Amino acid sequence: MPPLLELVDVHAGYGDREVLRGVSLAVEEGGIVALLGANGAGKTTALRVISGLLAPSAGSLRFAGEDLAGRSAEDRVRLGLAQVPEGRRIFPRLTVLENLQMGAYLCDDDAEIRDRLGRVHELFPVLAERTGQPGGTLSGGEQQMLAIGRALMGRPRLLLLDEPSLGLAPLLVERIFGVIREIHARGCAVVLVEQNARQALRLVRHGYVLETGRLLIQGPAEALLHDEVVRRAYLGG
Fold it and tell me: Residue 189, Cβ neighbours under 10 Å: how many?
């Protein structure tokens, strides 16, 4: 069976600055992978290319058997892609409920939207308690839950998570990683960009390590945890 997502020799950047230099990766249906690397390695740029926010200058992308060349970000959402950006980027003046409803903007079936909302509330009960509260008044951890919940309202086949634990207290980090594990267990594929490389590799099945826009190493997560190069550069020795 072909991968759900496949990037082959992708190049991308901003203006004259090339950030990705021939990156290839694959995610199986229902799989979970980590994209690791230092700041500036190209991790967020890779997610932006996948989600359609940035066009590649070379290479190919396929998702669910579809060539993504020329497909808009909205088209990719329709196909089943969703991204949770770094920094959450919720709508602070909208209520929690309105933020979640924005995630289902492509669905016009009220019963289906209620069902999706119920599933999000199962994962994040606190969002049900805060339903009428402006998103901007939530704590950092609650805003991250809201951002993930908003993405899940689109019922994606693949969820792109960009630094979901950034700036959160350790207990909230554990909660967020537990939710990611549950999302994956429910059948959604996941690409995780995460500063905590050790914790990410303990969660995923396969990892890709970028260095200055190139793929440095890839392999099963367990193998990367014990790889000497990865340990020295990203796992603290």
Answer: 23
